[in-house]
Amino acid sequence: MRARGRIAGIAFNWEAASIRERWKRRIGGNFSGSAVLLGDRIYASSEAGETHVFRASPDRFESLAVNRLGDESWATPTICGDRICMRVVTGTGDMRKEKLVCIGTP
Question: Mapping DSSP to helix (H, G, I), strand (E, B) and coil, where does residue 94 land?
Fold first, then answer.
């Protein structure tokens, strides 16, 4: 499924050995960056600045959190040690600013 030329926000799990879809869930929004796996959690930031966190489980979709940092996000979240860093945009027009936000223990 595509929306306005971008991949629409659908999370899915495929079993590689059988090439069988195990589950699929619409999480909403459009995503330009890639999802990132850290432990048993997947982080995916939408273009609207929402980061979806869900469990990496072959059995079912389990949403853990949805957080907003900024008004837009076009980049892939980056994991560095115990920190997650994201490039976000705040404001519009002449007030538009890009910034790097890092969360966690330095």
Answer: helix
Read off φ and ψ for residue 67, nearest 5 degrees.
-125, 145
pLDDT in tens, the chain (106 residues): 444 455 578 888 999 999 999 999 999 899 999 999 999 999 999 999 999 999 999 999 999 999 999 999 999 999 998 899 999 999 999 999 999 999 998 7
Q: Which letter does DSSP use for residue 7 in this model?
A: E
Model-level pTM? 0.84
Residue ranges covered by each domain of the chain: 32-104
* Cα–Cα dist 35/60, whole Å: 17
Architecture, CATH, for domain 32-104? Beta Barrel (2.40)
